[in-house]
Write a structure and sequence with these properties.
The complex is a heterodimer of chains A (241) and B (60). In chain A, 77% of the residues lie in helices and 0% in strands. With 241 residues, chain A is mainly alpha-helical. Chain B is mostly helical and 60 residues long. The chains are: A mainly alpha (241), B mainly alpha (60). The A-B interface holds A 8-11, 39, 43, 48-50, 52-53, 56-57, 60, 84-85, 88, 95-96, 99, 102-103, 106-107, 110-111, 113-114, 212, 216, 219-220, 222-223, 225-230, 232-234, 236-237 and B 2-8, 10-11, 13-15, 17-18, 21-22, 24-26, 28-29, 32-33, 36-37, 39-40, 43, 46, 48-51, 58-60.
């Protein structure tokens, strides 16, 4: 089967029904191994055991941004090719991205209190991530208040493209402004600044979170396709009544 | 038993919040899936079919 065939909703549902149990199983296994490695990871020489919060905070931050990236790609699919599955993908990514961004904000706040002495500061990194979360809430409000998914699709796609400007701002905020938040220590020129004993568990947890994102995304896409079928059948029923 | 040091509450709270949010997300998705399947089965039982099922196409 060619990849393009997956753009057909019925074929997509068939593939998801077959793949989802395996994907969920692999996700659970990688999470179990990741948590095992987290338990064995040493404390940081400065932060002590609070470094264990990083294994949740950093992957959640990456996936909060990736969620918006998925929505941006889907927005292009909606606006350029007007494919209904693109809007399904965008709409389905919004609650998952919002959840990961929420986890990022809460765990960051809980990490900040013992490390910085405060739960929150209005520095560029924290504020731009809060803006991302508010954009997600706006996107969810747009989707959940619209009765006709075809009419909300275009507005949501435009909001996704406008909001995408915030992603490089989040990434480079620690370089462009003087922030309390530390600069990049993994994806940076010269390689990661973290010891392998902490970096490897972090990368395994990042893989587990990424697999979780796609498992949940496929499941929400399946729900959204079924919801649109229900809507279309109810309209057929109303017309024939 | 591993030692989480003097800030154990913050570490435990972080893992608890993450587990709670992920569990809530999974529960919402599973409930939504059951609800959509139930409504679809009910509509099909009443003889309502999608336009694409009558023809050759496959609309969502």
């Amino acid at each position: 089967m060619a990849v393009i065939d997956l753009a057909n909703p019925t074929r997509f549902l068939n593939v998801v029904d077959r793949v989802l149990p395996w994907l969920a199983g692999v996700t659970a296994l990688v999470f179990a191994y990741g948590l095992y490695r987290v338990l064995g990871a040493p404390d940081d020489y400065q932060q002590g055991a609070t470094v264990k919060i990083m294994f949740l905070h950093v992957p959640a931050a990456w996936l909060g941004m990736m969620g918006w990236g998925v929505m941006t790609m889907a927005a292009l699919g909606t606006l350029v090719w007007r494919h209904p599955l693109a809007d399904v993908a965008g709409k389905s990514a919004a609650p998952i991205g919002a959840a990961f961004t929420f986890i990022c904000l809460v765990t960051g706040s809980l990490w900040g209190r013992p490390t910085w002495g405060t739960y929150w500061v209005w520095d560029a990194r924290l504020t731009s991530v809060l803006v991302l979360f508010l954009l997600y809430l706006g996107m969810l409000a747009l989707y959940w208040t619209a009765e006709d998914p075809n009419r909300s699709a275009r507005a949501a796609a435009i909001l996704a493209l406008v909001g995408a400007v915030n992603i490089p701002i989040i990434k480079f905020s620690v370089d462009w402004w003087n922030t309390l938040h530390q600069p990049a220590s993994i994806m940076r020129a010269g390689g990661a600044a973290i010891d392998a004993s902490i970096l490897i568990p972090l990368l395994i947890m990042a893989l587990a979170f990424t697999l979780l994102f796609f498992t949940l995304h496929f499941a929400t896409m399946r729900n959204e396709i079924l919801r649109r079928r229900v809507r279309s059948m109810r309209m057929m029923q109303a017309r024939s009544a | 038993m591993i030692s989480l040091g003097p800030h154990a509450d913050f570490i435990v709270a972080s893992y608890a919040v993450t587990a709670l949010v992920v569990a809530a997300l999974i529960a919402w998705i599973a409930t939504d899936y059951s609800a959509q399947k139930r409504v679809l089965a009910d509509l099909e039982q009443r003889g309502v079919t999608r336009r694409s099922k009558r023809g050759d196409g496959d609309a969502p």
